[in-house]
Amino acid sequence: MFVFQLRYWTPVEWYLHHRKTGILLIIFAISVIWRLAGWYRLQRRYRECLDKIPGPAALPLVGNTIELNLDHEELYQRIMGMRMLWGWREGINKAWVGQHPYVFVSKASTVEAVLSSNRHIDKSADYRFLRPWLGTGLLTSHGSKWHKRRKILTPTFHFKILEDFIEVFGEQTEILVKKLSREVHNGSFNIFPYVTHCTLDIICETAMGRQVFAQNDSNSEYVRAVYTIGNIIQTRQATIWYHPDILFRISPLYEKHQQCIHVLHAFSNKVISERRVEISSNIEGNNIEEGDEVKKKRLAFLDLLIEASRDGALLSNEDIREEVDTFMFEGHDTTSSAVCWTLYLLGCHPEYQERVIDELEQVFAEGDYHRRPTLNDLKSMKYLERCIKEALRLYPSVPLLARRIAEDVQIGKYTVPEGTTAMVIVPMLHRDPEVFPHPEKFDPDRFLAENANGRHPYAFIPFSAGPRNCIGQKFALLEEKVVISGVLRKFRIESAERREDISITAELVIRAKNGLNVRITPR
Q1: What is the set of domains in the chain, with CATH numbers?
Q2: What are 119-174's pLDDT values in tens digits?
Q3: How far lies 326's CA from each of 132, 133, 512, 518, in Å?
């Protein structure tokens, strides 16, 4: 017969009997208390500073999450509306996503305080959803890794190197024009898919030296993966409950996400391995003798990165893949957005479109009007460049820029504490009536030298600004000129919708919710 006897321990007896366990529990308790105290101090610091900044009232714990958990179109309109209500005069307002503070800046002086600093160069946590695809390349890296990559990559965007890519721009534009010709007698159509496939073909060939034929086969595995992963990232950014990895992994999107990552990385890794072998074997790379002729090999960014790694920069295959994938991500949607909005706005304003045509007739006066442009031709397209810039003012390709505040910073009369996310609202910055009178008017002459003279350097930032500005802006502008001039030399563009009737959605790039519908007729 067993007798169970309960023994009641005093705290001292329990500690003496379970000394090791007790020590661990005490350490754990102190750690928890220390973390809670740190969190409380941080929140109190946030509140002390941010309560002074105008913005909507926030609920306990959840902040303004409910107000901001919207689809892309509504979120864009909500952010614009918040700026109109609380940040119009001073160019700064705030909101809380859970317990994390955001400040939105939208005047040149407030934007400069964030973007001009060498301290606030780290992208915010909002960019973390890109890392499964892009790793920690130039867009998503921070600190010393970013500085190292920037130093390696800057020479690859030299004008002499970019000149070699103009032939690719011209080839793909000719395919685009042939595709568009099918729409001549079909009434209005959405021009966005056509241009996006063209820019995807361009960036794939210039970044990797490989063709994916997106314009001829938009249903290929790689092309579908590029578009699918973009949609998944956009959905995850806009949906609060997809933010935590643990919840995203059990969602139906996760399997599609992983499939896309596998396709994209497999393609990039295959191309990188092949190019490394080709270059090291001297089969391709510089000049290849063919009989009595010497054929110049067309270089891609990938080749330049491999060459840079051979000079001691020591980039692994994974490092190179990060940068090539980053070029792919940043180099097609943003450029297609700029091209489409420029064509659409010129379709809204035929008088400006005809001024572009007059300029093109002068540029190509001494040769075949429909030949491919040269670098000197593109430099001569001054009026077209002003039209592109004005389109980027009204519809900047990247509408929101987010940075992590690395140390307390004074923005206007407010102190923004370390750890806050600062978000630049580029469309509102570009519509400041004190800088751009009648801001909704499309007026390319705003960018005449005499009109731009003295303008605040942070008032117009379609390619960001400061030490972390877009490294590929020269590449983008040259590409946009080639594509737009190629289309306008063949077709007269007429917009099928008024600007007032277009719903804007802010995804990874700024888009029209229902596309940009135009009509074209042969010239």
Answers
A1: 58-522 (1.10.630.10)
A2: 898 998 888 999 999 999 888 888 888 888 888 888 888 777 888 899 999 999 99
A3: 12, 9, 24, 31
What digits encode the pLDDT tens for the residues 8-60? Answer: 666 666 666 666 666 777 777 888 888 777 777 777 888 888 889 999 988 88
Task: Report whether 274 contacts 320 (CB < 8 A).
Answer: no
**What is the spatial distance between Cα 515 and Cα 196, in angstroms, rounded to a whole number?**
12
| Residues sharing a CB contact under 8 Å with residue 307, sequence separation 6 or more, in sequence order | 279
- Model pTM score: 0.89
Q: How far is CA 385 from CA 348, 363, 448, 477, in A?
A: 17, 13, 10, 8
- As a whole number of angstroms, the distance between CA 490 and CA 371 comes to 11
Instruction: Give residue 283's pLDDT.
Output: 46
H/E stretch holding 252: none
Q: Which of 95-109, 281-295, 313-327, 370-384 has the lowest mean pLDDT?
A: 281-295
Is there a contact between 423 and 104 (Cβ–Cβ < 8 Å)? yes
Decide: 161 and 347 in contact? Cβ < 8 Å.
Answer: no
234's CB contacts (< 8 A; 6+ apart) are 72, 507, 508
Residue/partner pairs of 448-456 with CB below 8 Å, 24 or more apart:
448/386, 456/108, 456/109, 456/112
Q: Is 313 exposed, middle or buried (0-12, 13-18, 19+ CB in 10 A)?
A: middle
Tokens at 150, concatenated: 């920037």
At 291 the pLDDT is 42
Residue type, 96: W
- 117 contacts: CB under 8 Å, gap ≥ 6: 409, 466
How large is the average pLDDT for residues 435-460?
A: 96
Which residue bears the tokens 């600004």?
A: 465
The bridge status of strand 421-425 relative to strand 100-105 is: parallel
Query: CA–CA separation, 345 vs 348, rounded Å?
Result: 5
